[in-house]
Specification:
single chain, 22 helices, globular, mainly alpha
């Protein structure tokens, strides 16, 4: 613990991690929870704006449709942001891409603030699309920046800070939404603009902090700037091991130039990485976490306590991940999550015959969330940043970003019907998904702790199922 803190505080690394966190995944977490508090006030605003324009009250279905657009177009913006990661980060570099993303977030906040005085719900829709765009672009660029500034021994800890700041954003969205703070009718537009304050801070401070060393060395070919950036981040040293690793990766890239997302999908040599990344993300999103929260209007202070617990658990996971490795956090987390959902189903089936059953179910859901944050959620953020070498990483983040936001949109549409159809038995479906995640990560996923990105790629190439690998299939096709 002490050695870890010493390494993080020798240079500007800790400061950069904090600035990136508040300008990156914090926004995503905040906007996921920040809309719940002002939702009745926004719907009232839509009603009043319509009446002021047309001198008649709007039909109920019109308010529902406008509100649905405000909620759902955030995911559309996120999807668009994810698809532009390769273009923006590749052209501008990681640092300038984060600064540009912050300018978009500031512009979105300005539109949201002015919407109230302009009596325009259309401006709210535009602001939500822009907020979604900054979340989609910011999440992937933030993750790339983190993995490209971190030495091999600290890669897991540094990458995991993205999840910590996302949890902090969720907690802040709930906190600022309290009626005692900003959750009042006259301040609903201000609640949705709080993250822009951190975007302003990032625009001011980030230009004075180093660019990602791996980007400077591998993509720009500037070894002097790379070494200077490493020393600025982590303190004085020659960093020969890190630069030799980058040099080996650069040589590998020369024989395999950067790919587009479609080219990466067709490349059999990274098929297991893509499958692993997509499978784990699907398991995380289909594990039931989207419906595992406690209703905020009923127990709003409990959700604050749960938010604090999420942050503590992700920090604990960050301290643990370099000791235990990634695999145990995955299969252990998924295994406990699966068992928890089975117990929740049993408890809910007894709720009519036992007074304590609902309380047990609520406690189990909290346990589930803690296992999720301390296991697959935290380890997943680290793993995704380790699976691909520099030339493939941006295309991979485009693919995972598109999948993430498409799943987000589809789940929002499908889950209400699923819950109505299956009732409490939907938790058995979540348990099955978690069980699949446990089996996959236990039997197939290689350990990535302490390995270079090239070594990790070789580990995945060596995976065989039923005695056969994707590379063998490729060689057989070539012979034919």
């Amino acid at each position: 613990m002490e050695s870890l803190l010493r390494q993080l505080t020798h240079g500007n690394a800790m400061f950069l991690i904090i600035i990136l966190g508040f300008g990156g995944t914090f926004h995503n977490g905040y906007h996921n929870t920040g809309l719940s508090s002002p939702s009745p006030y926004i719907q009232s605003f839509i009603n009043n704006s319509w009446y002021d324009r047309y001198k008649e009250p709007p039909p109920p279905q019109t308010i529902t449709m406008i509100w649905s657009l405000i909620v759902s177009l955030y995911a559309v913006g996120g999807l668009f942001g994810a698809t532009t990661v390769k273009f923006v980060s590749g052209r501008l570099g990681r640092k300038k891409a984060m600064i540009a993303n912050s300018f978009v977030a500031i512009m979105a906040a300005a539109i949201m603030l002015m919407s109230k005085s302009a009596k325009s719900y259309e401006m709210i829709i535009v602001a939500r699309i822009l907020h979604g765009y900054t979340a989609g672009l910011g999440w992937s660029t933030h993750m790339m920046y983190l993995v490209e500034i971190s030495p091999r021994k600290l890669r897991g800890v540094v990458s995991l800070t993205a999840v910590t700041f996302a949890s902090l954003g969720k907690l802040s969205g709930r906190l600022f939404g309290l009626s005692e703070i900003l959750g009042r009718e006259e301040q609903w537009n201000i609640v949705l603009c709080v993250p822009a304050c951190f975007s302003v801070l990032q625009v001011i401070v980030l230009p004075f902090l180093p660019e990602a060393p791996r980007y400077l060395f591998i993509e720009k070919g500037d070894d002097k700037a790379c070494k200077k950036a490493l020393q600025s981040l982590w303190g004085k040293g020659d960093y020969k091991e890190e630069m030799d690793e980058m040099l080996a990766e650069q040589v590998a890239i020369e024989s395999a130039p950067p790919k587009s997302p479609l080219e990466l999908l067709r490349d059999r040599t990274v098929r297991w990485q893509l499958m692993t990344m997509s499978f784990i993300q699907c398991c995380n999103q289909l594990s039931g976490i989207t419906m595992a929260g406690i209703p905020r209007d009923q127990i709003r202070y409990v959700t604050l306590g749960l938010g604090v617990s999420e942050i503590i658990i992700t920090i604990f996971c960050g301290l643990l991940i370099e000791h235990t490795g990634r695999r145990p956090l995955f299969w252990g987390g998924y295994g406990f999550m699966s068992a928890t959902w089975v117990c929740v189903t049993v408890a809910l089936s007894l709720k009519d015959s036992s007074q304590w059953a609902p309380y047990v179910a609520a406690a189990l859901i909290i346990v589930f969330i803690l296992f999720f944050c301390g296991g697959p959620s935290g380890a997943g953020a680290t793993l995704n940043s380790e699976l691909f070498i520099q030339s493939d990483r941006m295309a991979a983040f485009v693919i995972v970003g598109i999948q993430r936001w498409l799943c987000f949109a589809v789940l929002g549409l499908v889950f209400p019907f699923l819950i109505n159809a299956l009732n409490s038995y939907c938790f058995l479906l979540f348990a099955f998904v978690c069980l699949l995640g446990c089996l996959y990560t236990f039997f197939i996923l290689p350990e990535t702790k302490g390995k270079s990105l090239l070594e990790i790629c070789e580990e995945f190439k060596a995976i065989t199922v039923c005695g056969q690998s994707f590379l063998e299939e490729k060689r057989e096709e070539t012979k034919l």
